[in-house]
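FW: tagging you since you asked about this chain on Friday. Here's the raw sequence from the shared folder, copied in full. Didn't touch anything.
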Amino acid sequence: MNKIENVKAIIFDMDGVLLDSETVCDRTWDFLLCHAPADCVAIEDSYNGVRSAVAAGIRTIMVPDKLAPNDEMKKIATEICSNLKVVTENCL
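HL: got it, structure written out here
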């Protein structure tokens, strides 16, 4: 597992916690508009979330929830971690 360097923003939407409110969503997008995708890290639990973040050029850590990482996720995700504690201890 590799440390991810030069992170200015961590974006996550696991179980809809961060992006549920319109205000938080607006602030998140305002922040992202001021930073390059390569300066951010997305933490995602779904295949579509990982695909979206990767397509946006954001380094992406998958923390699987209901679906185990498949071959596609193993190929496109920057890292795959079993839980958020592993992310904070080993990747960031």
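FW: Residues 16-24 have pLDDT under 50 and may be disordered.
HL: agreed, and The CA atoms of residues 50 and 91 lie 16 Å apart.
FW: great, closing this out.
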